Amino acid sequence: MPVPTLIDTSALVAAMSVSETHHVRTAEALKRLAPDGLLIPVNILAETMSFARARFGLDVQRVLWDGLAVAGIEIVPADAALIARARVIDVAYADAGFGFADCMLLATCEVRRIARVLTLDQRLAAYRPSFSAGLDILP
Length: 139
What we know:
Number of domains: 1
Number of helices: 6
Strand order of the largest sheet: 3-2-1-4-5
Helix content: 40-55%
Order of helices and strands: EHHEHHEHHEE
Largest sheet: 5 strands, parallel
C-alpha cells in the first residue's frame, strides 16, 4: 500500500535551487516519493511561495507554481479545527521551538495519519504522532 509524504518548505526550496546544499538529495527524493503521493499543507505552500519570491524572484515563484500543478502534489486545506490542533501541538511541544508552520505541518500529519515528512528540519523528529512511534524524516 502506498505511503504518502508530507512536504515541508525546506525540502521544496532545496529541490528548486541547484545552489542549495541538499538540492540533489531533495530533488531525487521528490521523484522517488511522487508515485506514492505527495501532499503540502496550504500554509506550507504559502510559506514556500513567499520564500521563493523573496530569495529567487517572481519568475522563479511562477515556475514553482506551475511545477506544483504538473507534479500532482495535493494541497491540503486548513480550517479552524486544524489550526486549533496545531496550537495544541505548539503548547505540548513548547520546548521544541516549533513555529506556526511547523505545528500546522504536524497537525496535518495527525489529521491525515501520515508519519512520513520530506524536510531538512531535523527538529521535527522530536514530534511523536498519536498513531506512530515517530516521524519518518526524509530525505
